Amino acid sequence: MNRRTKIVAVAAAILLTLGAGGVAVASGDHTPAPAAAVSEAAALTGTAKLYRPAGDDITFSFDAHLADADRQDPMKATGTFRFSHYKGDWGGYAKVKVDCLTTGGKVAVVSGLVVETDVKEFKKARVGVTVHDDPAGDRLGYTWMTADPQKDKVPPCISGAPFEKVKEGTGDFKVLPWEIVYPTE
User: Which of 108, 52, 60 is nearest to 84 (CA)?
Assistant: First the structure.
C-alpha cells in the first residue's frame, strides 16, 4: 500500500467513525455534546469557611474570571464573590461585583465593589481578598480591617496577605495562574 492509499484509507475510517456517531445520534441518542471550554487567562473559584475557635460562621465564595482575550488587562475581570460573618443573631453579608483579578501560581488577588449588603459600612465600598490555594490548607486575607471601609478606600487589585486559616475540610479554592504575555522586540 502506497502513502496516498494509506491516507485515503485513514480518511475513510475517520468518515465512517463520524458517520456512525451521527447515526447513533439520529437513532435516539440525545446525549448533549459537552460544552466548549471558555478560554481563560485567570480564574478564582470555590468556597470555604474561615477557622474560628469561638464558633463564628465566616464564609467566602468566589466566581471570578479573566477571559483570555483580556489577558493584558486584569481590570476586565468579571464575576462575583460573597462573604458573610455570623455568630448567633449577629452578623452580615456582602455580594461583590469583581473589578480586578490577578493570579500568580496558586495565589489570587480579587477586588470589587459591594453591590449588595446588609452592613451599612460596606455599601458601595471596594474590597479586596487574597486567596492561597494550598493543598496543605487554603488561606485567605482581606483589606477591610479598618473601622470604615468607606473612608479608607481600597484601590483595585489590592488586598492583604493570606493570614487567615481556612477551616479544615471546607476549602475548595481553585486558582488558574495568570501568565502575562510580554511583547517581543
Answer: 60
Reported as a single tens digit per residue, the pLDDT across 5-22 is 333 333 333 223 233 333
Q: Tell me the per-residue pLDDT of 101-142, one tens digit each, with 9 for 90 and over.
A: 999 999 999 999 999 999 988 888 899 999 999 998 999 999
CA distance 133 to 151: 31
C-alpha closest to that of 155 among 90, 114, 99? 99
- β-pair partners for 61: 47, 82
How many angstroms separate the Cα of 140 from the Cα of each of 32, 66, 69, 120, 123?
Answer: 38, 20, 28, 23, 22
How far is C-alpha 54 from the chain's CA centre? 29
pLDDT of residue 181: 79
Question: Under a CB-based contact definition with an 8 Å cutoff, are residues 42 and 77 in contact?
Answer: yes
Question: Residue 6 belongs to what H/E stretch?
Answer: helix 3-26
